[in-house]
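Reopening this ticket.

The earlier resolution said the output was attached, but the attachment link was broken on my side. Pasting everything inline this time so it's all in one place.
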Amino acid sequence: MKPTLEIPDDLSRRAKATAALRGEGLGEFVPEALQAYLKRQDTRDSSRGWRSVFGKARREAVEAIDAIVAGEFEEVDPDAWR
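Inline output:
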């Protein structure tokens, strides 16, 4: 697929320079860079689990919830899960 994209001049220059330093053309570099970006986003979203809900919460609020969750886990009987 060959979509037409509008890329700001400064970003285009940086991408071309980075591709050149890697010995690649822009056509090779951009798909790799986009794939790497999307992979980071997928990893970031899935690794945060329940905390992703609190992305904009104050740190104190998340710490309080962490304490509650930790307390509940202390009450779980490990033998009951075997």
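Reporter confirms the inline version is readable. The longest helix spans residues 26-48. The mean pLDDT is 80.
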